[in-house]
UniProtKB/TrEMBL annotation:
<dbReference type="Pfam" id="PF04102">
    <property type="entry name" value="SlyX"/>
</dbReference>
<dbReference type="InterPro" id="IPR007236">
    <property type="entry name" value="SlyX"/>
</dbReference>
<protein>
    <recommendedName>
        <fullName>Protein SlyX homolog</fullName>
    </recommendedName>
</protein>
<keyword id="KW-0175">Coiled coil</keyword>
<feature type="coiled-coil region">
    <location>
        <begin position="37"/>
        <end position="64"/>
    </location>
</feature>
Length: 75
């Protein structure tokens, strides 16, 4: 948005309105981005908990394989 500073009278009301409009759009964009970031952090938290749970389950499986498996009952 450019304003011509020539010899014509400068319309401060138009400039003020343009700046207010720009700020309103920026405020909306910032709020939308903030919502997106908050949503992504919630998803990241859920995924981190799932990874930790899977890691624990995997370690438990590995620990149970260290002990010899008992023979089947028909032996």
């Amino acid at each position: 948005m450019e304003f011509d500073m020539s010899d014509e009278p400068f319309d401060y009301a138009a400039r003020h309105h343009a700046l207010e409009t720009l700020i309103a759009h920026q405020d909306r964009t910032i709020a939308e981005l903030s919502d997106v970031i908050a949503s992504q952090w919630r998803k990241i938290d859920i995924l981190e908990r799932q990874v930790a749970q899977l890691r624990e389950e995997f370690q438990n499986i590995g620990a149970s394989r260290d002990t010899p498996e008992p023979p089947p009952p028909h032996y």
